[in-house]
Amino acid sequence: MELIGHLQTYEWGKYGKESVVAWLYCNSIDCRIDSETPYAELWIGVHKNGESRIKDCLHPLSEFLSKNTHVIGGLTSEMWCLPFLFKVVSVNKALPIQVHPSKVQALDLRKRMPRIYKDVNHKPKMIIALNDLQVLCAFRPLRQIRRFLREVPELEMIIPKELIRNYLIKPRKEWFIQMLLNILSREEDVMETTITCFLQRLENESEENKTRYLYNLIKKFSEWCPNDVGIFMCYFLNYFTLESGESIFIAPGIPHSYIQGGLVRSVCFISSY
After folding, report:
1. Which residues form the Phosphomannose isomerase type I helical insertion domain (predicted)?
2. DSSP-based three-state secondary structure for 255
């Protein structure tokens, strides 16, 4: 049985024939690929904001599953219809850094702030790279974070010097949280000055130093999202590239961002996005 997935054209997606999503989607409905369209995601599942259809009859997948409960098991069908959402993703520029709650946190957030948190489920995910996929995921080892704090002077423009000094002497959790809060609450003009200083300082440095201090990555971030407070988070989160076929599991509570590349991912079904 062939399915037609639901296309999402978010602005961060790859355009035209550069997107694997474009090829999959347009082949399934026999249409031409538009070079001006950002083909970002192809959803395969029963999500209300983008349900798959049966190719032969164009009926919703949920309708088929409700009439053929043996396909996914009777109990699963009664509880969920389909307990996961499968996506193919083509990323042209970095997505916002995101963190998803655990099951317990999701229940609590839904109870306290139902207008904002519309779902009671968590969102663990498995991702597999389709080609070279650049990722930020989870906090770096302490020694790496401390090295960047010592060696990147621009960080003192967005984090109080005393806070950095205290953390380098004794890395306490509350000071780490305060550093992140300082970064993520910085005004746009402060970020602009800080990023400009960083790029100008490293512009004529050796390639070795540019690589050591992630110059090209930060320059790319500054072009995609000028003056964004998350630009220097690559000094606190692991930055790496997955090769085609490599995978990672991202548990609830783990900060992460897809920077560039193609992937498939399976996420626990939620209804809030």
Report:
1. 182-237
2. coil
State pTM to two decimals.
0.90
Q: Is 56:30 a contact under the CB 8 Å cutoff?
A: no
Q: Which residues contact 273 (CB under 8 A, 6 or more apart)?
A: 49
Residue with tokens 């890395």: 171
What mean pLDDT is predicted for residues 43-72?
85
Dihedral angle of Cα 109, 83, 240, 14, to the nearest 10 degrees: -100
Q: Which bin fits 81, alpha (ψ -120 to 50), beta or left (φ > 0)?
A: left
- Residues 225 and 222: their CA atoms lie apart, in Å, by 5
Instruction: Evaluate if residue 160 carries a pLDDT over 70.
Output: yes
Q: Which two tokens stand for residue 119?
A: 């779902």
Question: Distances from the Cα of 22 to the Cαs of 18, 39, 58, 90, 165, in angstroms?
Answer: 8, 6, 20, 9, 49
Q: Where are the beta strands (DSSP E) in the chain?
A: 3-4, 6-8, 14-15, 38-39, 41-44, 53-54, 84-91, 125-129, 133-139, 237-242, 247-250, 256-268
Specify the DSSP class assigned to residue 18. Answer: G
What integer pLDDT is reported at residue 147 of this predicted model? 98
- The encoded tokens of residue 129 equal 């790279």
